[in-house]
Amino acid sequence: MPRSGRMDVAAFAANNVREIHGFKTEAWTLKGAQILNIHYEIDNDTVDDLIPVALRPAIPAYAIFNVTHYPESPVGPFSIGEVRVGSRAAVRPRGFVLRSYVSTEAAANELTRRWGYPAMVGKVYLRAFHDRIVARVTTAAGKEALEMEMIDRDFISGNDVQFISSMHLTRNREDGKLVVVQVDPEWVFQKAERGRPHILKLDSQSWAAGDMLRADYPISASYTIADVTLSPIRYFCDPAQDAFRGTTQVAA
Amino acid sequence: MKFGIFYEISVPRPWDREKEKQVFDNCFEQVQLADELGFDSVWCVEHHFLEEYSHCSAPEIFLTACAMKTKKMRIGHGIVICVPQFNHPIKIAERTATMDIVSGGRLEVGTGRSATWNELGGFRANPDETKMTWDEFVRCIPKMWTQERFGYEGRSWGMPVRAIIPKPYQKPHPPMWVAVTSPGTEIDAAERGLGSLGLTFGSFKEQEDKVKNYRRIIKDCEPVGSFVNDKVSTVNFLFTHEDTETGNKVGRRLLGTFNFMAAQLLAAREAVPTKSYPSLGLLPTLRREAAGPGDAAGVPEGIAIGDPERVLRACKKWESVGVDRVNFLLNALETVPQEQVLNSLRVFAKHVMPHFQDTGAQAAAAGGGR
Question: Which one, A86, A129, B189, B234, has least CB within 10 Å?
Answer without folding.
Answer: A129
